[in-house]
């Protein structure tokens, strides 16, 4: 069974093809084919990169025509040219798509039909940047692959079992009835990492209390008990929660009222400030990339140090909140770009929980290993670094719906 995965965003798209001819393996196999489209690298051109399992590589700069045409061209590299890994589109058995927002209605992955597509359109009100791009990928695949079954894997679905006390905001009920509630995001990553954690610990997922820390440019935590998310830091939008690369995370709502009263402020400008000019970037005045921040700290930049300290304070504070929701902890998981590659962040975060008996093995932590336990042997809480594999999780969801 060959499963094509599309992970479409507003500025980029990642795709890969898995061959599950021998059934569903216990760990992620190497894809037959991987592709990435960067819509923003050049003003007039789109950058496409393709690589195959046998080492073939294709890099192209294409004139920026319509996005569906570019996606269709990317598909053609599956069966044409040096990067061909199948003989025709008919060899693709299923296509899985990451869909950012599934609302309260979609609590699990779904085979895509007209009803599901209409829901993705309706829920674009809550995810105006992502859901339209997700739908664009779905419709582009329909044009090329015809009636090949397609699956929507919702990023919000893993958090759909939050209890009302965890998802309800303290606002008038009439707004809650309009759909304003905590949804949570990064669910595909949190789900994959919780399953992988159980594997690494040789424990049943249902018996574990986990905090998964997805730390990239966007950041979120999930408290996972009995295999389900019972609390999370992102909310109605991905802006809530942790301090992030360029997003503010949770701030006093009164600040927003104050800023909107300024004569030079409007909603669009405020949106840009909170999502693109805040977080680590806003505090440091340098960058939202923690690698740059750490270099500046080494050079004695006090503002970079403050950005790091605020980031860590926010991370510890929210881990503490997740800990309270779980009433205990078996393991904490670090994943995504920062979580997997920044031992300094992991060490600083864990230092706040030594009172739990959590102890890092500093040698393992600094080796930058993946899919390993970096806690000391006598630590009462395990600490895992897991390479998140959202594409593989999407493929697994397709397999289960075949």
UniProtKB/TrEMBL annotation:
Its EC number is 2.7.2.1. The keyword Magnesium applies. Gene3D superfamilies: 3.30.420.40. The active site is at residue 155. Homodimer. Catalyzes the formation of acetyl phosphate from acetate and ATP. Can also catalyze the reverse reaction. This is Acetate kinase. It comes from Pseudanabaena mucicola FACHB-723. The lineage of its organism: Bacteria, Bacillati, Cyanobacteriota, Cyanophyceae, Pseudanabaenales.
């Amino acid at each position: 069974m060959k499963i094509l995965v599309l992970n479409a965003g507003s500025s980029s798209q990642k795709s890969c093809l898995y061959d599950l001819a021998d059934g569903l393996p216990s760990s992620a196999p190497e894809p037959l084919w991987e592709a990435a489209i960067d819509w923003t690298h050049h003003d007039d051109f789109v950058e496409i990169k393709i690589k195959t399992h046998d080492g073939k590589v294709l890099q192209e700069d294409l004139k920026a025509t319509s996005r569906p045409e570019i996606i269709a061209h990317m598909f053609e590299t599956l069966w044409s040219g040096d990067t061909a890994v199948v003989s025709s589109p008919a060899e693709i058995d299923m296509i899985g798509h990451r869909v950012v927002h599934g609302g309260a209605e979609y609590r699990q992955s779904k085979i895509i039909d007209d009803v599901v597509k209409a829901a993705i359109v309706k829920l674009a009100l809550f995810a105006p940047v992502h859901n339209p791009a997700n739908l664009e990928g779905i419709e582009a695949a329909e044009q090329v692959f015809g009636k090949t079954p397609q699956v929507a894997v919702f990023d919000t679905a893993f958090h759909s079992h939050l209890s009302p006390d965890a998802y309800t905001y303290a606002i008038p009920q009439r707004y809650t009835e309009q759909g304003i509630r905590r949804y949570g995001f990064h669910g595909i990553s949190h789900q994959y990492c919780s399953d992988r954690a159980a594997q690494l610990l040789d424990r049943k997922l249902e018996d574990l209390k986990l905090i998964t820390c997805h730390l990239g440019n966007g950041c979120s935590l999930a408290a996972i008990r009995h295999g389900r998310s019972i609390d999370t830091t992102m909310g109605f939008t991905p802006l809530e929660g942790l301090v992030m690369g360029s997003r503010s995370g949770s701030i006093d709502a009164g600040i927003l009222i104050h800023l909107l009263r300024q004569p030079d402020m409007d909603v669009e400008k405020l949106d840009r400030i909170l999502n693109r000019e805040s977080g680590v970037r806003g505090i440091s005045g340098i960058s939202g990339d923690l690698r740059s921040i750490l270099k500046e700290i080494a050079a004695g930049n006090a503002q970079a140090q403050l950005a790091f300290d605020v980031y860590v304070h926010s991370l510890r504070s929210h881990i503490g909140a997740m800990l309270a929701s779980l009433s205990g902890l078996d393991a904490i998981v670090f994943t995504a770009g920062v979580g997997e590659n920044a031992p300094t962040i992991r060490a600083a975060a864990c230092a706040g929980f030594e009172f739990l008996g959590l102890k890092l093995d500093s040698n393992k932590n600094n080796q930058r290993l993946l899919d390993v336990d970096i806690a000391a042997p006598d630590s009462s809480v395990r600490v895992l670094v897991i390479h998140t594999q959202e594409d593989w999780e999407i493929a697994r969801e397709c397999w289960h719906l075949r």
